Amino acid sequence: MADRQPSVFEPQTDLESFHTHLKKSKRVLALLGAGLSASSGLPTFRGAGGLWRSVKSTDLATPQAFARNPGLSWQFYNYRRHMSLSVEPNPAHYALAKLARKMPGFVTLSQNVDGLSQRADHPSDRLHLLHGTLFDLKCSDERCDYREENYTDPVVPALAIPADQAQPAGSVVDISDSMVALPSLTTYDLPHCPECKRNLLRPGVVWFGEALPEVVLNKAKDYLAAPENIDLIMVIGTSAQVWPAAGYIGQARARGARVCVVNMDSDAPPGGWKQGDWMFAGDAAVLVPELLK
Ligand code: BV8
């Protein structure tokens, strides 16, 4: 997480106090980030091996980038679809799905677009995708409401990743290189909307500058507004730098939640540590199953 102001409190780090609290908890939120999928072999966004480290890929997660160069944008997203399909959910994805089946008051807010929580059979009614998913396609014209679930890899033949470009899962790769390597694409090569037939299809993710899905915002709002307090929010594998997603930590606190951070680094969440927080530093794939045992 980004450097935060020094905290007055230091977080607890013992499993026992966490397990005691979790056992008594009825309403628990999880806020998930790319660190949850790191051990599955997917690069995070802002860490050392991060996907956004090359300016090009940061620029690509915007509507302007798609309008400017849909071919490059589709190469970026097709590559991430390919990477996500070539890895497996890890024990943390399965542990969270198991808790969701066991605890009716457990809700997951995921920033991840990689589809791994879904493939771990996380109950879909309590898995809210704040930033959409790589495996939804929708018409790039907002006036057309076409959307489809799509796992085709490559998404169109012209985007097939040359064998020498396909990196083994988990490798840190500057994917902008692979995007340059593919022949220049024309819009005829790219997926088109079968409904309005005029426009390109785009990835069903939330780009920077775009509003989060209304239905997801409302589900989160209703959960936070319910009369009963929230007992805990688990903040797993996120730098908490993207808003409004990061704001759910403070909103949960305001409803009584204690915060449990699971992260490779031990930075405090936005607003610093508060009394009763926990910090478990390490790999989410190892720690989360322990915590949810
Ligand atoms: C919007 C999809 C308004 C695309 C993504 C305040 C309020 C509202 C908005 C803003 C605001 N301030 C600024 C904004 C604008 C912007 C924003 O937040 N900018 C940031 C960069 C400052 N927000 C927006 O634009 C949002 N839209 O607010 O719209 C609006 C309202 C009405 C009408 C119109 C507009 C939209 C944001 C969504 C952007 N889309 N993704 C794509 O993926 O291509 S964001 C992207 O970042 C991913 O979704 C990702 O999930 C997300 C967050 O990153 P993290 O998951 O945290 O990943 P990161 O690499 O950063 O961190 C990984 C962490 O894991 C690290 O801490 C690391 O230490 C740890 N880790 C690593 N390995 C492990 C580990 N932990 C455990 N185990 C390990 N093994």
UniProtKB/TrEMBL annotation:
Cellular component terms (Gene Ontology): nucleus
Coiled coil residues, start to end: none
UniProt: Zn(2+) binding residues: 139, 144, 193, 196
GO molecular-function terms, A-Z: histone deacetylase activity, NAD-dependent; metal ion binding; NAD+ binding; protein-malonyllysine demalonylase activity; protein-succinyllysine desuccinylase activity
InterPro entries: DHS-like_NAD/FAD-binding_dom (IPR029035), NAD-dep_sirtuin_deacylases (IPR050134), Sirtuin (IPR003000), Sirtuin_cat_small_dom_sf (IPR026591), Sirtuin_class_III (IPR027546), Ssirtuin_cat_dom (IPR026590)
Keywords: Metal-binding, NAD, Transferase, Zinc
Domain Deacetylase sirtuin-type: 8-293
UniProt keyword annotation of Transferase present: yes
Presence of the UniProt keyword Ribonucleoprotein in the record: no
UniProt superkingdom: Eukaryota
Active-site residues, Swiss-Prot/TrEMBL: 131
Family per similarity comment: Belongs to the sirtuin family. Class I subfamily.
Protein name, entry field: Deacetylase sirtuin-type domain-containing protein
